[in-house]
Amino acid sequence: MLIEQLQRLAAGEEFERESRRRERLDHAVDEMRRQQTVARVRIPVPADVFSRKMADLPTGVALAPGQLHIAFSGTEDLLTKLFELAQAASNDYDRFCAAVEPVERRTA
After folding, report:
1. What is the DSSP string of the chain?
2. Which of 1-5, 6-10, 66-70, 102-106 has the lowest mean pLDDT?
3. Can you tell me the distance from the alpha carbon of 41 to that of 70, in angstroms, rounded to the nearest whole number?
4. What is the average pLDDT score of the chain?
5. How confident is the model over 12-50, as pLDDT tens digits?
6. Cα distance between residue 12 and residue 105, in whole Å
7. CA 61 and chain centroid, separation
8. By C-alpha distance, which of 104, 78, 84, 79 is closest to 96?
9. Closest Cα to residue 86, out of 57, 106, 60?
């Protein structure tokens, strides 16, 4: 009798609604935890990074048409170099395009 009542409850609309609510809550909590972890990450960058040009890319960053090579010593070093590359691309977009696009695409 108890098992039958529990089975009816489990098959009911209220139980289904509560299950979906709990699933959404679990997902939201997981997302908040992930965001907190990401928010604690600090990327050390040089003071002049916001004026970085393509000619000023750090040692270990090399671009060629269709290729990007980054030599790094750890997570922070990689993130720093990616950030510097992004700033250089933003500040010196024409040279960035010239460095990464194949010659035949630049002339088209």
Report:
1. -HHHHHHHHHHSHHHHHHHHHHHHHHHHHHHHHHHHHHHT------GGGGG--GGGPPTTEEEETTEEEE--SSHHHHHHHHHHHHHHHHHTHHHHHHHHS-HHHH--
2. 102-106
3. 20
4. 88
5. 888 888 889 999 999 999 999 888 887 787 888 888 899
6. 61
7. 19
8. 84
9. 57
Encoded tokens for 65 = 């048409």
Query: Do residues 72 and 78 lie in contact, with contact meaning Cβ atoms separated by under 8 Å?
Result: yes
Contact 29, 21 (CB under 8 A): no
Burial class of residue 52 in the structure, from the number of CB atoms within 10 Å of its CB (0-12 exposed, 13-18 middle, 19+ buried): buried
Q: Name every residue whose Cβ is closer than 8 Å to that of residue 89 and which is 6 or more positions away in sequence.
A: 54, 96
Question: Helix crossing, 2-11 with 13-39: angle to 10°?
Answer: 60
